[in-house]
Design goal:
Length: 130
């Protein structure tokens, strides 16, 4: 039941990441379009993480406290999005294996990357307004 919903949410998040990557590559693309794709990917990621936490039951509490340091090192938008894409693919594969804890960790790392990218875009917009 939740497994199919998790897969669907991760697939949608991955689709939005692909849209964001394509938006970055396209000439004449807008920062708003990139932001919209990232927001949609983030929303799907949060839903997937919620469902993964439900699947883990009591073990979910410790998973919420985990933070990966790998996401702190990525600063280039295109590299961050490519890495997020890999993490989403890994999360989907782990769901297929019924390894919900590993899937949660991969999706959580992807979420952290998306948040970092969104923060960079916000800072960039703020600087442009000055």
């Amino acid at each position: 039941m939740h497994r199919d919903k998790i897969q669907a949410a991760l697939t949608k998040a991955l689709t939005h990441i692909e849209e964001a990557i394509n938006t970055m590559k396209a000439s004449g693309s807008t920062e708003k379009a990139l932001g919209d794709s990232l927001w949609a990917a983030s929303a799907e990621t949060e839903y997937a993480l919620f469902l993964l936490a439900l699947m883990q039951g009591d073990r979910a509490e410790s998973a919420f406290m985990k933070r990966t340091s790998a996401t702190r090192q990525i600063v280039e938008l295109d590299i961050a999005l490519a890495f997020a894409r890999e993490l989403f693919n890994s999360a989907k594969a782990r769901v297929d294996e019924n390894s919900f804890g590993a899937s949660y960790e991969a999706a959580s790392s992807a979420r952290n990357l998306l948040l970092k990218v969104q923060e960079q875009l916000r800072k960039k917009r703020k600087e442009a307004e000055r």
